[in-house]
Amino acid sequence: MGSAEATDQRVLLVEDSRLYAELMQDMIGSPGSGIDLVHCGELWDAAEVLLTDGAACVLLDLTLPDASGLEGLKQLRKLAPDVPIVVLTALADEEQAIAALKAGAQDYLPKERADSDLICRSVRYAVERAELTRAEMALDRAETLAGHLQRTLLPDSLPSIFGVGLAARYVPRAVGASVGGDWYDVMHLPDGGVGVAIGDVVGHGSQAAALMGQLRTALRAYALAGYPPGEVLTKTDAYTRSLNGDAMATALYLAVDPEERAVRMACAGHVPPVVLRPGSGASEIELPPSSPLGVGSPRAYSETNIAGGPGATLVLCTDGLIESRGWEIQGGLDRLTRAVDSGPRDPEQLCDHILTAVTPAGAGEDDIALVVMQFAELVDNPFHVSLPASPVSLSELRATVGRWLRQNGATQTESYELTVAVGEAAANAIEHAYPLGDAEFDTRAELVGGRVCVTVSDRGRWRPPRGQETGRGLVLMEALADELDIVSGEHGTVVKLYRALGTQGT
Amino acid sequence: MITAATFTPATNAGFLIGEIRGEIDMATARGLRDQLAASVPNTAKGVLLDLSPVPYIDSAGIRLLFGLAEDLQTRRQQLRLVVPEGAPIQTVLRLVDLHAAAPIHPSIDEALAAAEACILDPL
User: Which of A398, A430, A476, A484 to mutate to test the interface with B (most CBs of B within 10 A)?
Assistant: First the structure.
């Protein structure tokens, strides 16, 4: 045993008969055999060796002084579940051998018949199979991890944006069961607009998923800093180049103005969007040729502006939707255009329709990201929005209410003053009516006969204003609305603000 | 968007001149209050705050300004605000009588002149 080579596989023989152990040593453990045979007479010793030195395989006699029958097998399996065990049985005891297999043994060998070849082959086979299982399990874990990573990196819900309907889908690739690097993102921009991004990192697996996360974050950061679309991609391209390795991705970024219903976009080698305007057919938006992020020499990406108009729909996708083996990308784009033309209007339903109608027959080789964005019809009246009961919701609500009021003919002053009043009602809902925890409050606005009614409701309890401090919000609401109505009950508080448009307020 | 105050490094005739930029609401008022509290030295005769670049203020912002005026008052420091004619936040400031706690001027120059006059000729 002292002659073991570093590359030898340690095989642990658990056998109480010294005679048989010596025989085994001669048969399979001789120098140069590739096996370093370690002998233990008792289960107890074997456990210790397994825990301290480990083993590639265990040869286990089922009749031991300190463990009889399958007991020893079960204990060793528990101790080292990854180490394969081959049991040595008496020829007459086939029944016990089968029970051993059921209890997790890799193989069984009748002692009387086992020769050097048979034992070696059985050991090698057991070791290889255990390694394969380990590799499969590692792969499984990696897949789960990458899939989890990708899901974490994609938005779990889209922001609610007044004036823009949004729906999105991500379909992981089915073939090869490895995650891809597709992403989409939607965010509020500092100028009151909406940023929509979609992209596709070249490659698959956890590395692509991680790179996707980096690029999505970088693009989002540049968009939130207020850069115009071309600049956002130029900067994201520079960022991509700063990363180690051969990072490469295609991306499309849109800065959407919900009020003007206009879109500014920049493209980095990505599939062009398809637009559908009411009264005309769907068509692919023509964009100047561009290269993916991180490829070739650094460049400035150009911007393309399009007018959307009321009710216009834009469809953004990754090539997994329209391209697959045997299908031309143009054929896929044509099918997408037809599907958008014939599909339902509602963005959620349109997403489902597109996935069913367009996905090529051989699909599943690539993942798919899909975003449908739709401008509201001219007058979206009444409107309703639910927002988290958090102070950060206030600016979003103000922007939304202000836009709605101006669309419905409110003057700048009327819009501003009513927005202040609604902001106070919402601040009350957020500040007073909620215990800690996740909660939402609702805002509804309606224009009836030249009179605006905005309702802010929560599901908490109204706390009467305490002192001058909180009283100021009430002062503002009373002064800036024609009529103020606060109804507080068991299930929440409803604040209604009324104001006639076209008359001078304060 | 980030709402923040910036101050010119040197005082002008002993007055600290600053500017607040951004919307002041429940979400931004607390950070702004901490920033303002840390920015005003005991030695300044007072603070002139330009609110021209503030497009929106709500009751949380009003509370902040009342509080700041009160804090400075106990240190015998003046607080004067600058809000140009026709600024959108004027209506709100008027409705809550903010000028009772801190005089409101249409420009920095006028605010500074009034502040100096007040030192020379205390009420």
Answer: A476
The pLDDT of residue A199 is 95
**Token pair recorded at residue B63:** 């509370």
Are residues B1 and A475, on separate chains, in Cβ contact within 8 Å? no
Q: Which two tokens stand for residue A389?
A: 């009961």
In the structure, what pLDDT confidence band is assigned to residue A180 with cuts at 50, 70 and 90? confident
Least CB-CB distance to B58: which of A417, A420, A506?
A420
| Cβ-Cβ contacts under 8 Å for A85 (sequence gap 6 or more) | A57, A58, A59, A60, A73, A76, A77, A104, A105, A106, A126
Number of A–B residue contacts, CB under 8 Å: 55
Q: What is the pLDDT of residue A505?
A: 45
Paired with A372 in beta bridges are A167, A315
* B87 in contact with chain A, both atoms CB, cutoff 8 A: no
* Minimal-distance CA residue of chain A relative to B1: A190
The answer to whether A12 and A41 are in contact (CB under 8 A) is no
> ipTM of this model?
0.88
Identify which has the larger pLDDT, A396 or A14: A14
Number of H helices, E strands in chain B: 4, 5
- Interface check for B26 against chain A (CB to CB < 8 A): the answer is yes
